[in-house]
Amino acid sequence: MLNGTELKLFADANVLNAMTDKQVKILLAAIEVFAEKGYANASTKEIATKAGVSEGNIFSKFKNKRGLLNAIIEPVINSIFPAVLTEFKTDQLPLQFVTLHAFVDSLVRDRIQFLKDNAAVLKIFVSEVLYNETVRKELLTKFPPLYWHNINKNLNQLKDNHLIVNWENLEILKIIWSVVGGVIIGYLLFNQPLEQREITHIIDALVKSLAR
């Protein structure tokens, strides 16, 4: 079952403004069915039944099953993903960190909470990123320039203070992304646990691997 935050994601991105109540029900039903069964194994009939509407209501707004998937994926790429990064760069990255642990904790912990709060939508999204090259390429264009500016600034400050390995910033980020990405895939696609103990271990492992 959805936890209720998925609808807020789309509402905050103004995706629901042009939708009727019935169309919103279809969107939410599609999120639940795609997340549970995967896109390939889902049917518009099943989605319509879960939404309490006829299949014709799906076709009139979303055209087909792929249209429904696009209605979920495109807002994530175009609005939700950039907005999350904007929130992250302004609220989660102070201008300077006293310790490497504080930096990694800030980088990881709240984003993992966002992952847990919006698991159904992100499971669908991650599956498309993994298997759809077009989606991967489009995603790379959505990182706000200020995100890169701020995270590079923080990494440079950590290096100036001899708190982190003196590698290229992109190399450091690749290490972080590979660890966090593995955790995300494990949680979303393989139902691996992600409680506070596991999150603490992830942060500790990254700190040990990146410490000067």
Automatic annotation (TrEMBL):
Keywords: DNA-binding. SUPFAM superfamilies: Homeodomain-like. The keyword 4Fe-4S does not apply. Gene3D superfamilies: Tetracycline Repressor, domain 2 (1.10.357.10). InterPro entries: Homeodomain-like_sf (IPR009057), HTH-type_Tx_Regulator (IPR050624), HTH_TetR (IPR001647). GO terms for molecular function: DNA binding. Residues 20-80 form the HTH tetR-type domain. Pfam families: TetR_N. Residues 43-62 bind DNA. The keyword DNA-binding applies. PANTHER family: ACREF/ENVCD OPERON REPRESSOR-RELATED (PTHR43479), ACREF_ENVCD OPERON REPRESSOR-RELATED (PTHR43479:SF11). This is Transcriptional regulator, TetR family. It comes from Lentilactobacillus buchneri subsp. silagei CD034. The lineage of its organism: Bacteria, Bacillati, Bacillota, Bacilli, Lactobacillales.
